[in-house]
Amino acid sequence: MPKFLRIGVHQSNVSGYTSKAWCVRRVGSTVFLKWGAVEVHGVGDGRKAYWTLPPRDKTIRCGTVQRAKDYAKAAIARRRIHRYEPLVGNIATRRRTADRGAELKQALATILFVDIVRSTEKAAKLGDLRWTQVMNHYYAAVRKELKTLRGKEVVTTGDGLLATFAAPAAGVRCATAIHKAVRTLGLEVRVGLHAGEYKVSGAEVIGLAFHIGARVAAKARAGEVLVSRAVKDLMSQSGIGFKDRGVHQLKGVPGRWRLYRVEH
């Protein structure tokens, strides 16, 4: 059964929607669909997905096998170009413990969010096979820079990636390195960085700071690295230049935020 995942951070996606999974299965002339909100834990091969509520399901009786094939093909194609990614493995029902909140630990980090500019347009132009190859090279390039500058990958979001750094300077240098590396693939990215606290419970990360980092990235232009004032203030002695990009309202985030562009 083909499965697709739209990933978020602790149920509230960094792009403003709930983490969601889709399953598509065809049996003869009938197509079975299942979808719903999920929690995602871990990254890469060790990633696990859990239904947060019982999933919704739908049965489509298409009349003929060919119509069912066409319906399933179209459903899968839509998932591939709308910020979803293929999901390997089963989706389980999570068992929650009553004292789970007591396990939460506080952490402080610089948060980086990187996103491909006009990814849906590029995916449609290149086709599924070529786009999958490009994305594999993209993530390999991003992860190479993360490893070099000791960044910790938190989650991928279809065509974006969220990571944390112990030091803001490392996060900024990684952002500029990623920008240069992916240009060789014909891609442009926008990057946002924010420094703040978040909570950790096992493989889970929870906190407004992740959403702020994503919203800062959403304000960036193609090829631009933007940082919040929290990052800039921590880097006053770094020698890295910044240009004031004014005060902005970040979607879903209280208050107004002054942002700065990193001068390469």
Count, helices: 6
How would you classify the helix and strand content by structural class? alpha+beta
Number of separate strands: 15
Radius of gyration using CA atoms only: 20 Å
The major sheet is characterized as: 8 strands, mixed
Which residues form runs of ≥5 with pLDDT under 50? Answer: 9-17, 97-102
Amino- and carboxy-terminal Cα gap: 46 Å
Could you describe the 3D structure shown?
- It holds the Pfam family Guanylate_cyc.
- It comes from Bradyrhizobium erythrophlei.
- GO terms for molecular function: adenylate cyclase activity.
- The protein is built from six helices and 15 strands.
- The protein has 264 residues and is α+β, with helices and mostly antiparallel strands.
- It has two domains: 3-93, q64v53_bacfr protein fold; 104-263, Alpha-Beta Plaits (2-Layer Sandwich), CATH 3.30.70.
- The strands form two sheets. Strands 8, 9, 10, 11, 12, 13, 14 and 15 form an eight-stranded mixed beta sheet that branches.
- Strand 2 and strand 3 form a beta hairpin.
- Helix 2 packs across helix 3 (128-148).
- The longest helix is centred in the middle third of the chain and has 21 residues, at 128-148.
- The radius of gyration is 20 Å and the shape is globular.
- Residues 9-17 and 97-102 have low confidence and may be disordered.
